[in-house]
Design goal:
alpha/beta; TIM Barrel; binds flavin mononucleotide; FMN; globular
Length: 442
């Protein structure tokens, strides 16, 4: 099974200063021409898929410097992802198209219908990244006074995914003969009415779309809590994880693979993609230069706001060159990233300025930097060492970073027999080495 490569397809990139870099595209907000070009670069590099993270709200309005400068996971001016991927489906032929949609503020019928449509439009290349929503403020756009608590979000998410899959199974694969001669458009014996009645949802069904070409579009998820991991073990085909070191990634990999048997699944039924920022240069020095240029594009007020966002509390009143404060755990960010930042700053005795400069290039996650050999070496080590089944790659600067990756690193991975030279399969599932799920209602 070749290494899986996914492209993080945020057109504004993955570094706070990135959109300002001279090599970055001009005017990246809601720019369809850029999105098409990015998809085509990734497809030329034989990437498995494009991945669009998403949320349903404008963030950081309480942090004026960061709000004006924008940071990658804020996305104040982007396309709705399934709409965008439907357009990209018509501009590509092989690459998988994965969009994020929330189970907390959406309805299973809508989600089943949207992704079934995308799967048909793309000829079996759709994926759904199931999230329970990370940004609490999104709640205010959906008639909620506050964000739904984590336990409830995951309870709802499990039922939501059951319903979505049940709806995708509404029709047998051959339920639509569309036979002009007999006048039978469909075969009434080949539809199942779901009639779901649960704690969170009552959904009659059937879905008004034929069964998706992949049976089920590929399901992604990214939750890291106990509840999040269990949801992934039960429902996901792929997870997107971020770990900063190989031992941590290996522990996470073993944990996820170990949870599958409980749900009657094998270790190959869930693929683990490790999120990483990759800065590759023709030489190691060029990679260093790009990283330095990016960091220089972030003025201190923006850096401090960004750090505040990552640790979940305001850093404005702390001296820039004073030590990074050692917060109590319960005060720090809600995803674990904030805690990790504070821990590293403490261990290494970093100042506030050094801490934000440390997290800028990789959004507090992982980074591989160097020439093609160096980058391929560490990718190989993680892959062969069971730290992951592949990578979710952010490659600053958009688009030159991804172009350089496909020109320099992809051929090196191919030479080492780690990555495909041509797409093997017709669908995203086939390319990922995932089975097509049988229909639940025979
Ligand atoms: C790598 C990664 C990517 C994520 N992408 C998104 C996203 O695009 N949209 C979103 O609302 N949440 C996203 N999340 C948040 C998770 O889906 C989840 O809601 C959050 O991590 C809290 O759940 P947990 O406590 O189980 O981790 C992401 C999380 C991780 C770790």
């Amino acid at each position: 099974m070749p290494m899986i490569l996914a492209a993080n397809a945020n057109a504004q990139g993955s570094h706070v200063g990135e959109w300002r870099h001279p090599d970055a595209w001009d005017r990246p907000a809601a720019n369809i021409a850029n999105a098409v070009r990015l998809a085509q670069i990734a497809e030329a590099g034989k990437f498995d898929l494009l991945f669009l993270a998403d949320g349903n709200g404008v963030r950081q309005m309480d942090k004026p410097d960061l709000f004006a400068a924008t940071s990658p996971s804020d996305r104040p001016g982007v396309f709705e992802p399934v709409t965008l991927l439907s357009a990209l489906a018509m501009a590509t032929r092989h690459i998988g198209l994965v969009a994020t949609t929330t189970t907390t503020y959406d309805e299973p019928f809508h989600v089943a219908r949207r992704f079934a449509s995308l799967d048909h439009i793309s000829g079996g290349r759709a994926g759904w990244n199931l999230v329970t929503t990370s940004n609490p403020g999104d709640a205010l756009n959906f008639s909620h006074a506050e964000h739904v608590a984590r336990d409830q979000r995951y309870e709802r998410a499990n039922e939501f995914a059951d319903v979505v899959k049940g709806l995708w199974d509404s029709w047998a694969d051959d339920a639509f003969p569309q036979d002009k001669a007999s006048g039978r458009f469909l075969d009434p014996a080949k539809v199942h009415v779901l009639n779901h009645k649960g704690k969170h949802f009552q959904v009659a069904g059937p879905l008004n779309a034929p069964r998706p070409p992949q049976g089920y579009p590929v399901v992604f998820s990214a939750g890291q809590s106990e509840a999040g991991r269990d949801l992934s073990a039960r429902h996901a085909d792929c997870i997107f994880a971020i770990e900063a070191t190989l031992p941590a990634a290996q522990a996470l990999y073993a944990d996820f693979k170990g949870r599958l048997a409980k749900y009657g699944r094998g270790p190959d039924d869930l693929k683990i993609l490790s999120g990483v920022t990759i800065i590759v240069g023709e030489t190691a020095q060029q990679a260093e230069d790009i990283a330095g240029e990016l960091d220089d594009l972030v003025p201190p007020p923006v850096g401090v706001d960004y750090l505040s966002k990552m640790v979940g509390r305001s850093m404005k009143d702390y001296p820039l060159d004073g030590p990074m404060p050692d917060f109590e755990e319960e005060h720090v960010g809600h995803t674990g990233i904030g805690r990790a930042i504070v821990k590293v700053a403490k261990e290494q005795g970093l100042t506030v300025r050094q801490t934000y400069r440390r997290i800028l290039p990789q959004m507090a996650g992982n980074m591989f930097k160097g020439d093609a050999q160096q980058v391929a070496d560490v990718m190989e080590e993680w892959y062969r060492g069971k730290g992951c089944d592949g990578f979710m790659i952010a490659a600053p600067v958009v688009p030159t970073g991804l172009e350089r990756f496909t020109r320099l690193v992809v051929p090196e991975l191919q030479r080492r027999g780690l990555f495909r030279r041509e797409y093997e399969g017709r669908t995203l599932r086939e390319n990922l080495g995932l089975k097509r799920p049988p229909r639940r209602f025979g």
